[in-house]
Amino acid sequence: MAEYKLYCLDPKGRIARRHEFEASDDADAIDRARTDHPDESCELWCGTRKVALIPAGGEPVLARPFV
Fold first, then answer.
1. Domain for residue 67, yes or no?
2. Residue 36's pLDDT band (cuts 50, 70, 90)
3. Per the domain annotation, does 55 fall within a domain?
4. Are 56 and 22 in contact (CB under 8 A)?
5. Phi, psi for 51 (deg, rounded to 5)
6. Which of 2, 7, 55, 65 gives 20 to 30 Å between its CA and that of 18?
7. Residue 56 domain-assigned (yes or no)
8. pLDDT by residue (tens digit) across 39-62?
9. Distance CA 56, CA 10 (A)
C-alpha cells in the first residue's frame, strides 16, 4: 500500500482541502478519488510525484503513464 494525498481545488485552482489515504496503486487511488469526490477538481499525489489531475466529472489527466 502506498500513501496518497488528494488536493481538492477551488474554482480558481487553489487548494481548498487535502485528503490523505492509502491505495494499492495509482489506478486504485484514482478510482477512489473519483468515487469520493466526483464533483470536485483535484490533484492526486504520491509523495513528491504528481499522479494525475482529476477534473470534476471528467477523465483523469495522468502526469505520466502508470509504472
1. no
2. very high
3. yes
4. no
5. -90, -50
6. 65
7. yes
8. 999 999 999 999 999 999 889 999
9. 11
